[in-house]
Every structure is written in C-alpha cells, then in structure tokens.
Amino acid sequence: MNMPVKKSPVINAFGVIAPSYYEKILRFNLQNLKKRRSSKSKPPFSITTEFILRFNQTKNPKEKEELLDLARKAILKCRRKLGLRTLGTGKHVHLPTAWTEIIYLAQCKGEIQDEALNMLYASLDHAAFDYDHLPVLFFLGESVLYRLCCDAFLKPYLYSLEIKLAKIGYLIFLRLFIYFLHGHLEGSQQHLLRLQPYLYALYFSEESYYKYPNIFSNVQFILKTMEIICERELPSGSIFSPVENEEQYEDTDSDTEGYEVNNLLWHCVAAWTCVQKNSPQLKKVLEHLTLHKTQLQEKCWMDSALALLVLGEAAKLNMACLKALMDLMRDFLLSILSDQNQKENCTIDDFSWAWVVVYMYITILTEICLYAAISNLRKTAFIGFCDCKSSKEDILPLDKSKQQPELTETSILGLLNYFFSKISDNCDQVIWTGYYGLVYNLVKMSWELRSDEEQDGLRNLIWQTLQKIKDYEKDEWISNAAFIAQAELNDPMDPFTSYSSKVPSNAGDEVFSKYIGWRIASVLSKLFFPSTDAGVLPLKKPLIKRDQMKYLYKKQDSTKKKVLHFTVREHPSVIDLPMFPYPDFFTRKDEELARIIDHHWQEELKTWQKEDAICEAKEREDKELEGKNHFREIMRRREEKLQKQTKPYELPPRTEVISSEKKMTSQN
After folding, report:
1. Pair 503, 610 in one domain
2. What is the C-alpha to C-alpha distance for residues 326 and 329, in angstroms, rounded to an integer?
3. What is the pLDDT of residue 426?
4. Which end of the chain has fewer beta carbons closer than 10 Å to its terminal beta carbon, N or C?
5. Where does a domain end: 514, 548, 571?
6. What is the pTM of this model?
7. 448 shares its domain with 348
8. CA of residue 400 relative to chain centroid, distance
9. Alpha helices, DSSP H, located in 244-301
10. Do residues 363 and 490 both lie within one domain?
11. pLDDT attached to residue 646
C-alpha cells in the first residue's frame, strides 16, 4: 500500500523556490487580501435607492420588520454622527455625512421619516457654522425644495410633513444667507442655478399656503433669501428669470458691489455683544437703536428679520433689550396700521410683506417666554410691563363694539387683545396673520410646558386663553390654527378639553428653534466687530493652492472685490461710540475686590468643612463609647442577678455542662 506523500516546494540550485510555486503562493495571498479588503470596505448596511424602494413598497410583514430594524439601526448611527446630545461637537461627529444620510432616510415613509426629519431640524438648529458644510447645505436645500414642489404641492390637503419641510428649509436658507454675508458663496453659481427651477415652482405655489402663515412665512423667507443672493451672485439677476445655458456662467464672476447692512441690524448685533460682554455701553447702544426704528419699515425686510432675531436673543438675557424689542414692534405696528397710512397707501401695496415680520416677532416672543434666563423675563414677555389686573383677568374683550383697546403692550396678551378687537372679515393681513400666529404658538407653548412643574402658572394661563378663544372665536381658519399645531406635534390630546399625563411618543422632538439665534448673533458679532475676538474665525475657507495663485492675481485686476458694506459708518456719532472700552479704575478695583472676597470665602468654607468633619468624627466616637458602656452595665447587672458570666444566648462551656449532668444523675 502506497502512502500519500506530501510534496515539498521545488528548490533550484541556488536555494530559491521555483517560480511556478512562488506564483501560486503569491496569487493565493493576493486573493485572501482582496477578500479581507472587500469585507472591510463594504459596510453591512448602506442606505441605497433599492433599500428605500423596498422599504416603501414591500407588503411582506416579515420583510417589512427586517427593513424597519435596519432603518432604526441607521437612525441610531446618524444620531451619534449628528451629535444631538453634544450640540454637534465631538470626535465622533461628522455633520456633512450625517446630514446626507439622514435626508436619504427621510424618504422612508412612516415613523422613520418623522424621526429623521426631527433629527435633521434639531441638528440644523444647534450646529455651528463651518465652511465645509456649504456643499451639503445646497444639497439639503435642493432636496427639501424638491419635496415641497414635486410631492407636497400635488396633494390636495395639508399634512404635517409640509410643516416640517418648511421649517427645515427655513433653517437651511437662513444659514446660506449668513454664508452670503461672509462672502463665501462666490463660485457657487452652479448650485444656485440648480435651485432656480424649484424656487420658480415654489413662487407659484404661494396661493396654496396663503391660509397657513406658519408655512407661508417660511416660504416667503426662502424666496426672499434666494432673490437677494441670486441678484448678487448670478449674472441673470433674479431667480424668476428663464434658466439659460449653464456653461456660459462657469467662468464668469459678478462685479456687483457688496450687500449693504442697515443700521438697525448693526445696532442689534452691538446690543447682543454688549450683553455678552456685560458692557456699560448697552444703554447708549439701545438709545442709538431707537433712532433707526424706521428702518424696520423698509421693503427689503431680510435685515429687519435678522435684527429681530438677534435682539430677541439679547432679550432672553436682559430686560432693557426686551423693552427695546417690544417698543420697536409697537412703533412698527402703529405706523403700518394707522388710518392715515392706510388711506395714503390704498393704491400702492407697500406693506404687503409686513405680516412676515410680525409673524417672526411672535415666534421670537414665544421663544423668550419659554427659554429666557430668568422668570421675570418670561413673565414680562407673556403679560407685559403693565402688571395690572385687567391684563390677567380679562384676557380677551368679549364685546368688540364697546371695547377697543389701544396697542400699549406688544406682549403675548397685549397683542392677543389688540388683534382680537380688530379682526373682522375684511381686516388687514397683518392683523389676521398676527392673531393666527398667536393661537398657533400658544398651543405649541402649552405642549412644551406639559412636564415642567415650575411653569404651572404660565401653562394654566395659556389654557384659559385657549379656552376663551375656542368659546368666542367664529373664524374657522383661526380655530384650525390650534388643530394644525396639534397635527404638527403629533399629539392626540385636544388642547381645549383635557390635559392628560400621557406623554406622546415624540417627547424629545424640538418644537421651537433654541440655538440658531444664538449661533447667528455670535457669527455676526465676529463679522461686524472682528477686533473683539481676533483669534477666532467663524467660518473657514480652504487654502488656495499654488496652481490657483496665478489666476487669482489676474482676476483681482479685472473684477472688483466683493465686500460687505455697513451703512453705519456714514454716521460719525456711532463711530465715536466705543463698543468695548477699557475698564476704568473703579471697575477694575471692584473686580479685584470681588476676586479677593471670593478667595477668602472659599478658604473659610474649607475651614468650616474641616471643622464639621472633626465634629462628626467626635460624635461618632462618643456614641460608640456610650454604647460600649451601656453594654458593660447590662452585663454587670446580669452577672449580679444570674451569677453567670456568659453573654445572652450563649451556651456555657463544656465542663460546666458535664458537671451539671453529674449532679442531676447523683440526685436521681
């Protein structure tokens, strides 16, 4: 029987393995290496078009459950990449990738879609500004506009997805406008041209959103933002011009001058900066701000919207800024709603845009009521500075013919009383929109405060207000504002009838934007006042390669440099005002004295803690000694009475037991 022989490698005379055998080993190793690389490079699951189609079209329950499980795992990964718990910061956070994945997951219908859009809205709200986010923002903007124009617009009814898409679109284009102010949209002509068809379609879909100011205001903001950007960045001028050949714009640059920021926005950013730095110049800045209050009536209302947003952030921390904000809106409403102004502008619709500013102000005021730093600010934003009984007892005037309240307070209740008394079938759009926005935001406020026990008084007041609106309001669209807000929150509870302790499934969703105002105020502060924080750049631009340097010098000669013009420099009175003066002698001494007092207080606190520790240790020793003495006294009395030295429940020694047994036997 022949045994199998193991062949050894063929070795030549020089001791080297033969080429044929060497090639086999090399080929085998290469195949194994390719398998390992392919297994590592291909993730176990990736979001593809096939997966989205299968998820939306499958009817097999088992397959549907498997796909839903995969989508949930992808949601968890995206949540970690977005950094929702760390405000978009951390080594594991990569926002461009996470935003791309989450917008793909938003195409999966059902709970995955709702959760994906909620996560995207929260991330866009709190994420910092970075130049690397710009291409992804254009992609997100195109995706949202496509869903609004090609999907939502075809539906004959309103559904909650449209509200979420409009809110996300507002945050996207608000961020794009900030990049535009920094001059970072240069060279983005191709992205802007891709957005033009969707913006053109969105412009003609305005009539379908006319009765829903919560969506219509966001649509108007998107259109106004892109109109300003395209007029500066595209040679075609407007977004509503016909889309021409894109190739002719590849190497062309706009030679228009920079966008001019008005004085109102500049002073609002200055006020926010003074609040952050605790500057004593805040009072003078607010006085100068009131001198430019008429700029809130300008037709280009983008600066006004940003000014209210930044001043609202300052009002969350400072009462003087809150008063300036409310006075600014009161003068604005009185100027556009006065009888004389209405007669003069009966033929020219100059204030057709004013309702957008009013609606944004109501949203900002609602956020102050919820997220202000102290309770006094929240109370003032809701009730007003006039803390009288009528503002609390008579929330709404029941008889419109007898009572016509004047607009003295632009708080939540002040505006509600004023708009309720003025509303009619032929009322101004500002009045109807303001009243709608108040009802809509009151429902969302009551939902936001549902689990906050410290805000029970405010929540009860909101509930009473909503009850009166339900009882006395006859306008069907105003009544529907509450139910539209209810649908947006996916809340099965009726805000008019009962407040259940049941928490809805989406308890962690963001109802209002909490951080975008602070992010924008911080970025604009660094843009307008770069000397205050010279070491920090809000946005980063990529480094210019050496190959591009020769083209850069050629373009500087032929084209004008784009700059951001501040019209505030034309006023010498504002230039002479030092924004951040060096602290005087008394201020420095007060700060030094405060540091010394705090140091001695900490030292004294440590001494007290040591003394308390010594006293506690001594008390424990005294208690232990007292317990031992008490036990000894008990044992002494027991020995005297029983003549035994054993402890209670302890058997005597063995010798004693034996002796006692012997005694008993002898007696027997």
Report:
1. no
2. 5
3. 76
4. N
5. 514
6. 0.71
7. yes
8. 39
9. 263-277, 282-291
10. yes
11. 66
